[in-house]
Amino acid sequence: DIINNNHSHFYFIMKPQSFSLLSVAVLAAITSTSTFAQISQASETISTGPVVVTASRTEKVLNEVPSSVVVVTGSQLEQENQRTLGDSLLDIPNVMLEAPESPVFTRISIRGSDSDQISYLIDGVRQDNYTMSGNRPAFMFVDPEMIKQVEVRRGGGSSLYGNGGIGGTIAVTTKTAGDLLKSGRDFGARLKLGYNDDAREFGQSAWLFGRKGPVDAVIGFSHRDGGKIISSSNGRRSKTPRDSKYDAFTSKFTITPTDNSLVSLGYNYDDTKLDQGSSDDETKYRLKQHRLTGRWEYSYGDYVDLVVNMQYTKLDNKFDGTSYNPEAYFKDDYESYSINAQNTSIVYLGGIHTLTYGFDASSNRQKATDIHGKLDRSRPKSKGYDAGLFIQDEYAINDYVTITPVLRWSYYDRNPTGDSDSKFGLTTRNDNKFTPGITLTLAPSKALSFYASVQSGYRPPFLDELYTSIEYPEWGMYSVVLPNPNLKPEESINVELGVNGDYKSLFGESDRFVFHANVFRDRVKNLINAGATGDMDFSPDGDMILYYSIKNVGKALKTGFEASLDYYPGNADFHLSYGYLHAEDKNTGKKIPGLTPMQATLRAGYTYKPWDLNGWYRLRLYKGGESNIETSWGSGEYKKFGGFATHAVGLTWRPHLKDRADFALTFSIDNVMNKKYRYLNGGYGVGRSYRAWLTANF
After folding, report:
1. How many other β-carbons are positioned within 10 Å of the β-carbon of residue 398?
2. What percentage of the chain's residues is helix, strand, coil (to nearest 5)?
3. How far apart are CA 138 and CA 338, in angstroms?
4. What percent of the chain has pLDDT over 70?
5. CA triplet 678, 86, 1: central angle to 5 degrees?
6. Considering the entire predicted model, what is its pTM?
7. What is the DSSP pairing of strand 544-552 with strand 477-482?
8. Among 337, 457, 543, 676, who pairs with 492 as Cys (CB 3.0-4.6 Å)?
9. How many angstroms separate the CA atoms of 162 and 390, rounded?
10. Distance CA 364, CA 8 (A)
């Protein structure tokens, strides 16, 4: 629900009354337990499969993890020329997004979660720049050109990754020189040019990378420049006047002084600009982010496998809507310091114990100024601190049975640091919580495993939720947001039963058949919701005053089923996935609107190796239902949108110049039938669009 005071641009996001308990869109089921076949590396994909860490903080082959995890590889991102990280998740059934084309306003939902109920990781470090206020970002920033792999873990549980994550975890790994170098080479370069018709966007990127002895270095730059976007809704197309630019820079230096140690240092810079609307009704967004990261790895024998990560983040965000309202302006400053450390020890005692234990801590502070350079009360000056200790024992009793208990202690502290905090009811909050979990895995054979898991989650209020205090007047109406110093953390229990299968030479001599299925039950209580209090008043001048507050509103129950099948017969690949989600407000017993109840994805591809030519087809199916859009404001009745299907096709040709360069020329068409549709979460689809790009590797 967007409270906009009769204007379409200056607003703050409220977890809507229409969502009741969960707010935000959907994610019932996520697609395949293996990635889509990679064009030039299909045989390697079939023989090994991706290695993931989000399920247990230790490396595992994807099809062996006792959790609902999906992976998007760097090869898949290159194959479809994704514009944003959110855009790269659209092929995962029942991952619902808002504005996936925008690096600023992408919102992700996992199994019906809100975007701030997800833990976001980049190279093993949590990203804490969450916000609930509209016209402010609520996501992590990393250009797809910089990504090696994305892991999406479905289901709550903050035992391993700290405060938050009661909806799921999204973990990004960025590229190193080793990911880009051609076999047998020590140095290399990559150039890329592309165009996305749906966002009227041209893109370029350039990379230099090399390896000399123990040193591995990579430098990359990406630039995107887009214009009007054509959106799709019920029966019409609309062109949104806008000018967008996104620049990203990355550098990473890695030193391996010995075979059992590694040190790396990285720097990333993101600069995005978005101007939207006509000249007399225009909103301008500017966002700049600096991220400095360090990593140390050291291993020795069975008892020491140490990983330490550190990160410093500085984010500057600016909104300018003064073309229509001289007060519609703010500038945010955000800083964060993070560290985490873990060690894994192998102990042989009545079986094999893989003990993983460690700690993490982060400190962040934020402030905002208004058009006059004074502190902006919509984001009061404040600071927060989060910390935790965790231990996990992956106990393999024998070759067939593994029990994995995990326990975490979490602590949080929130402090307002302004001069008028007491005047507006802003007070210090802190608390701590133990969050246990346990997983049982049964593996009757190497190709088949079953698992049962119970995990608990804990999400303290972030700074905006505790300290937002707004009085915003416009056109005869005041919107007043009242702070709530008694806000409780959200808590969750996730129960999941699943099966993984990975069979080779099942129907043919060199084929592979992979499947995953699970049922889940997620229960969330103390849900934090921002909405109208029901109170109304009038100013001395006769202006209407509407009051809003951020409060705990009860609990929700989400149940569902997820399944995927992947089959690789030779040079072909087939992928089928399905998800079902039912979410209800436990206070009222009613189904929560705005969540897609069923979604399926079918994808098929074939590689003709003599010509290095690959073609693919994709079908997405969405079931319709009750949206989160009210028929009229405050009515409690919601519009119903119909189901829809979209089709996409693509073709990639990879010519080679021996000993000189490798090329990849790709062309794709999305929404081939030009289907008009709208998602149940209120987001708009995109009409028929074309993408073309050329990559050269030297």
Report:
1. 10
2. 5, 60, 35
3. 18
4. 83
5. 50
6. 0.84
7. parallel
8. 457
9. 9
10. 31
Burial 74-113 (b: 16+ CB within 10 A, else e): bbbbbbbbbbbbbbbbbbbbbbbbbbbbbbbbbbbbbbbb
Query: What would the two tokens of residue 215 be?
Result: 């040193």
515 forms beta bridges with: 501, 565
Torsion-angle region of residue 165: left (phi > 0), alpha (psi -120 to 50) or beta?
left
CB 246 within 8 A of CB 223: yes
Q: Tokens in use for 44?
A: 């390697």
610 three-state secondary structure? helix
pLDDT tens sequence across 290-348: 999 999 999 999 999 999 999 999 999 898 988 877 878 889 899 999 999 999 999 99
pLDDT value at position 63?
Answer: 61
Residue 414: its H or E element: strand 401-416
Say if CB 449 and CB 443 are below 8 A apart: yes
Per-residue pLDDT, 9: 28
pLDDT value at residue 589: 87
Exposure string of 7-18, with b = 16+ CB inside 10 Å and e = fewer, is eebbbbbbbbbb
Distances in Å between the Cα of 197 and the Cα atoms of 147, 274, 673 are 23, 18, 16
Distance, CA of 277 to CA of 432 (rounded, Å) = 45
56-97 pLDDT, tens digit each? 555 656 666 677 788 888 777 877 777 788 888 877 777 788
State the pLDDT at residue 138: 63
Measured CA to CA, the distance from residue 408 to residue 165 in angstroms comes to 13
Residue 693: closest CA among 650, 631, 649: 650
CA-based max dimension of the chain: 83
d(CA 450, CA 501): 9
Residue 387 structure tokens: 């910390």
**Complete DSSP assignment for 541-553:** T--EEEEEEEEE-
List b or e across 506-530, with b for residues whose CB sees 16 or more CB atoms inside 10 angstroms.
eeeeebbbbbbbbebebbbbbbbbb
> Cα(560)–Cα(521) distance, rounded to whole angstroms?
7
Give the model confidence (pLDDT) of 485-523 as tens digits. Answer: 788 999 999 999 999 999 998 888 889 999 999 999 999
Q: DSSP of 7-53, one letter per residue? A: -SSS-EE---GGGTTS-S--------SSPPPPSS-HHHHHHT--EE-
Q: Which residues contact 311 (CB under 8 A, 6 or more apart)?
A: 125, 291, 292, 293, 294, 336, 337, 338, 339
CA 58 to chain CA centroid, nearest Å:
21
Do the bridges between strand 304-320 and strand 283-300 make them parallel or antiparallel, or are there none, so unpaired? Answer: antiparallel
Q: Which residue has the tokens 């959907």?
A: 26
- List CB contacts of 322: < 8 A, sequence separation 6 or more: 328, 329, 371
Residue 183: exposure state from Cβ atoms within 10 A (0-12, 13-18, ≥19) = exposed
* DSSP run (H or E) holding 208: strand 201-212
CA separation for the pair 153, 150 (Å, rounded): 10
Handedness of CA 441, 443, 444, 447 (dihedral sign): positive
Q: Say how far apart CA 329 and CA 520 lie, in whole Å.
A: 44
DSSP letter for each residue of 502-524: EEESSSSSS-EEEEEEEEEEEEE
Q: Which two tokens stand for residue 528?
A: 């934090």
Q: What is the Cα–Cα distance from 492 to 167, expressed in whole angstroms?
A: 9
Residues 85 and 150: their CA atoms lie apart, in Å, by 9
Contact 560, 111 (CB under 8 A): yes
Average pLDDT of the segment spanning 605-621 = 94
